[in-house]
């Protein structure tokens, strides 16, 4: 597996560590006995004793030690097949450092916890941003050669944004962990090399939710999707009710295009100019309506972004449908007066439930679409999903999203056709894909 690198100028955080260590190395993967190397230097040694058989008999494992950093997950990493023909594992780590020393992070590696080794054949990307800063960046590029280390101030938390790419689902480890390497920086500037094994967890095995199209047959631009691009959805960190969440991780905004790849024709200050406006919204799966809101106005100031609404109005007029235990489909930004279902209604796949508008925190007409883990869009986790069928036509080559769609000189999107349109099954479109849905 290629080694992940972290972007220069971004910072992580640190956990309390012994300051007298000569080479603070801890490959602990806790909880439970370490599968890596014992700690050396200033880390804690065994406080118990071994029996005649060599087994551990004390109150603490001999491989246990203090680590300079800790890591906690914001979601259960869930593999999903995507339109690049690969399997992606997109998730976040909250990395915390309580040390009194700055820490330099030179690399973050994903390991198979069963073998304590890099995963063969996998590639990926890790970026780190300070908590509460830059988490909704648009158009940020992947870190390149030479841009490989960051210095971490003491006592802070950063988010590691991780996208791992595997050749097939069978290559995804059942349990993963991370090796973070770098150095503690003494007051005199002397670096003390460090390497810590943190963040062990099991990956999800339940598979992605398979859905039909939520819009009529036609050409549609998939904006603000997962995974490597730094979109508002992918980087939308939100502290809600005391939990740190990325509630729109796998959300996609749907824009209808014509045969010239135009998203609007005429005057972009008028709702009617956008081809997505008042397009039917269809149930992507059968289920029961658990939330339905209507009556909120469209944004009247296109293409100017609206004043951010209260949290309860974020997705505007919307419908949430329960399709399975712990699986809810959200359809957002509906046209006022168009919501055609009520709480408790049973819907069938393909049934019209509303029309596309621009209510809520929406600049230009589009459908906001995603899977939730709860019957509310905040708080919730965002889980991966796939279309049962679509045709990949190509990609939009520039970063265009809700706030800048109507600011283009024309409605024509910069489009690069695929080498040949290809039928896809049980895949999730990647951000900026242009696809054909329906017959």
Supply database-style keywords.
439 residues; 2 domains; mainly beta; Immunoglobulin-like; 27 strands; disordered N terminus; 10-stranded antiparallel sheet; Glucose Permease (Domain IIA); single chain
**The biggest beta sheet, please?**
10 strands, antiparallel
Helix content: under 10%
Spell out the CATH superfamily of the largest domain: Glucose Permease (Domain IIA)
Order of helices and strands: EEEEEEEEEEEEEEEEEEEEEEEEEEE
Count of separate DSSP helical elements: 0
The CATH class designation of the largest domain is: Mainly Beta
How many runs of DSSP E, i.e. beta strands? 27
Biggest β-sheet: strands ordered side by side in the sheet: 21-18-19-20-23-16-13-27-25-26
* CATH architecture descriptor of the largest domain: Distorted Sandwich
Give the N-to-C terminal Cα separation.
40 Å
Residue ranges: pLDDT <50 for 5 or more in a row?
1-20, 27-52, 135-147
Average pLDDT: 84
Shape field: elongated
Describe the secondary structure blueprint for this structure.
Layout: E1 25-26, E2 70-73, E3 79-81, E4 87-97, E5 103-112, E6 117-118, E7 123-130, E8 150-152, E9 156-166, E10 175-185, E11 191-202, E12 209-211, E13 218-223, E14 238-240, E15 243-245, E16 252-257, E17 280-282, E18 287-293, E19 317-324, E20 327-334, E21 346-347, E22 352-355, E23 367-372, E24 385-387, E25 390-396, E26 415-424, E27 433-437
